Structure to design on (244 residues):
């Protein structure tokens, strides 16, 4: 049994797997990390591995504290990955993006794949039909957009995510919601159209904390799975074990 943990820039997600079976998921903040992991390990006594993908600023020691109970593995650029990496700066490619690309490669073999992860940032990752990771894009996510409008202006209030009534905002609040939500939806649609124009067939996977909110608002029918990173982490680790 494996406990996978994804440390993002907003929050921590974790899931327990037995082989390919996803048993339970958890979401928590950085300050609760050790307490939550301890509880999960108590609940699932047969967990043997703790597998971590981290792009956030959590101390490794918080995980190493469990080394007397389980084997601890931090996914790194040195691990075996099932794709050829054609990124110009492979060492700076986010480990979460590597894991998403690995999951897409293993779960949807030999086809063009675009993974869109809507979290703190919106990341786009393209793996072509020859299993070559080609790159993608990084853009601000919802919260970063709302916060930057407030932070870098004198007059704009800080709002939280809300569906706009229309693309024509009739007040300051409506204008902000339209700009942030419709803007991001149009941006994602634009990228999808661009990728679709560039390849005959492509599978698109949408994940991250805002995947469900976005999926409802996108014209394109795409596969939304908010657990895709954790499932990919499980697949990536199994691949590493077989290929080391
Ligand atoms: N309970 C929640 N707490 C915080 N963010 C949430 C929650 N539910 C949904 N979200 C949305 O998910 C986003 C974070 O997504 P996530 O994929 O967890 O980010 P990251 O991997 O960068 O930490 C937030 O910006 C927010 O819009
Ligand atoms: C782009 C990211 C900040 C996304 O983080 P997230 O939204 O998942 O918290 C992360 O993948 C990262 O730190 N990347 C390094 C730069 C790169 O991928 O090229
Ligand atoms: K992301």
């Amino acid at each position: 049994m494996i406990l996978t943990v994804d440390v993002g820039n907003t929050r921590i997600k974790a899931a327990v797997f037995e082989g390919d079976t996803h048993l339970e998921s958890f979401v928590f903040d950085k300050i609760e990390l050790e307490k939550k992991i301890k509880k999960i390990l108590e609940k699932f006594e047969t967990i043997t591995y703790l597998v971590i993908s981290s792009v956030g600023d959590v101390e490794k020691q918080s995980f190493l504290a469990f080394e007397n109970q389980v084997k601890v593995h931090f996914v790194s650029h040195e691990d075996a990955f099932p794709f050829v990496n054609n990124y110009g700066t492979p060492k700076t490619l986010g480990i979460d993006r590597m894991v998403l690309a690995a999951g897409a490669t293993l779960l949807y073999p030999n086809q063009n794949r675009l993974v869109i992860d809507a979290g703190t940032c919106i990341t786009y990752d393209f793996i072509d039909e020859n299993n070559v990771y080609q790159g993608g894009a990084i853009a601000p996510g919802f919260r970063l957009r709302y916060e930057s409008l407030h932070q870098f202006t004198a007059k704009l209030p800080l709002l939280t995510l809300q569906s706009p009534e229309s693309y024509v905002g009739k007040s300051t609040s409506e204008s902000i919601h339209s700009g942030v939500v419709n803007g991001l939806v149009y941006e994602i649609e634009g990228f999808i159209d661009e990728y679709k124009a560039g390849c005959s067939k492509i599978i698109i996977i949408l994940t991250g904390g805002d995947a469900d909110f976005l999926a409802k608002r996108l014209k394109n029918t795409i596969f939304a799975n908010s657990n895709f990173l954790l499932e990919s982490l499980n697949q990536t680790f199994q691949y590493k074990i077989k290929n080391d």
